[in-house]
Design a protein that fits this description.
single chain; Immunoglobulin-like; 2 domains; binds heme C; 378 residues; 6-stranded antiparallel β-sheet; 29% strand; 12 helices; alpha+beta
Length: 378
Amino acid sequence: MAGHIGWWGLGVLILLGAGTARAAETPHLNPSGFTSSQVCGTCHQDIFAMWKGSKHARAFENPIFAAAYRDLQREGGDARRLCLRCHAPIAGITGDLEAQQIITREGVTCDFCHSVAGVAIRDTDSPFVVEVGGPKRGPKVGASSAAHAIQPSILHKSSRLCGGCHEFRNPEGLTTISTFSEWRASSYPAELRACQDCHFLPVNGRSTVQTGNPVGSRIPDHRLQRSQEQLRDAVKLDVPQVIREADRAVVRVAIRNTGSGHAVPTGHPSRRLLLKVEVRSAGSGSILGEATRTYQKQLLDGSGRVLVRDAELMRARNVSDNRIAPHEVRTETFTFSIPPGEAVRVHAEVEYLYRSPILARQEWRVLVSRQETTVPGH
Ligand code: HEC
Ligand code: HEC
Ligand code: HEC
Ligand code: HEC
Ligand code: HEC
């Protein structure tokens, strides 16, 4: 265990006792440890409600993670060390490794994010510098509160805050989640578009109950919604181009990643894009040919076998990856045999699929784009 102490203790500045003087002004907040989101929520009600429904709030308790976590524990892996630092990040700091306390089970909780003072992305074991019980850090300059000290923080407008968790290298040295590095390799950093500019967009709401209800008041959306609209804006499909030859049709389609700040799909390798092309007789409607192509990241073991169980991802040694990079246009060509002289209709569509190998019934399927074109016979 000794070699593992590193990330539990490293980079953490615990301001024990620093709260004594401030205690009178901050009756609800824990001056020497983390404060539960419930307490933050008494004042920051709208943000609390959004966060509560987010994947961050359920990072520890959601059944998909819980199943994978148990799976890994059963196999004798050191699941606590491997998983909690992102799924229940305060555990390693407070030492509640069995997640006995409610606040640990709050997953990626308010006080964790708003106590982060620095991120060293390259330190994959312990990227965060956290100032426990210190001021609450946020992007606004000039904000003040009697409830707690506030520290203006540009880090909270930066992708680095997210990169501490949205980039994961497994014990074999393979990067299994690479959202941050996909973003960094794109043109978005130069365009000054950080994760927050797409995932924490301003929505109507009040920052705190104390600030009253000014007209048009906006707060950053803490829900992390996976919305169909966002997907449809992000991935575009062009109308198929068809080159008609005597007894075949050569179909060309292009998929563009126009609005995703990283590869699409990104994140955990349980998502894929599916392109389907279908050629039908324009007259009878009967199917003359079909083809599909899948875009995904797959993790492989040392002998090239595809790993599907979440707990196995820790052992992955290799990756096969044909996802679509930010701003990339991917062109595919398919050839279909068709009866000479017959007019045909070519239909292409892209779907986004998300499935957990553990809870297979929870498939999420979105039709992202659909295009059709008709080609006359000669
Ligand atoms: C994953 C990290 C994360 C978590 C968890 C999180 N926040 Fe935030 N919060 C942010 C970021 C990033 C911003 C700044 C977004 C921006 O302005 O682009 C922010 C902004 C804020 C602001 C400033 C609002 C304003 O008016 O501009 C407040 C207040 C806040 N969060 C409170 C909370 C509370 C309360 C919770 C829990 C219920 C919470 N946050 C959970 C990252 C987080
Ligand atoms: C007693 C009420 C109260 C409680 C409890 C409270 N806050 Fe605040 N908080 C405020 C007020 C008031 C402001 C100033 C708001 C403003 O000026 O927009 C503020 C500001 C903030 C800001 C700065 C926002 C910015 O834009 O930079 C952050 C971050 C924040 N709070 C996080 C938290 C977190 C995390 C907790 C729980 C650990 C918490 N707050 C608990 C009242 C509270
Ligand atoms: C302490 C670690 C941590 C930090 C910091 C963090 N995240 Fe997350 N995030 C997670 C985890 C873990 C999940 C997955 C939870 C689950 O599904 O079990 C997640 C989920 C998400 C999702 C939803 C994914 C989905 O499948 O729907 C989005 C979007 C997201 N985070 C964006 C952000 C952004 C943007 C930031 C920076 C402002 C950020 N996160 C900071 C750990 C973190
Ligand atoms: C230009 C806008 C944009 C930026 C910048 C951006 N994202 Fe995204 N993100 C999207 C879109 C659109 C999707 C849905 C399509 C996809 O999976 O790529 C998405 C999906 C995700 C998902 C998967 C959740 C889901 O809904 O399935 C995570 C996690 C995520 N983003 C995290 C991040 C992080 C972390 C950063 C910064 C390093 C970031 N994003 C930067 C637009 C953006
Ligand atoms: C470096 C941070 C990090 C570590 C360490 C980590 N995860 Fe995650 N995990 C994430 C993020 C971020 C996501 C969400 C990614 C996304 O949605 O794109 C996630 C998503 C997941 C999901 C998918 C959840 C869903 O809702 O679909 C499972 C399952 C999971 N992790 C299991 C584990 C297990 C088990 C461990 C320990 C062996 C672990 N993770 C360690 C960051 C991490």
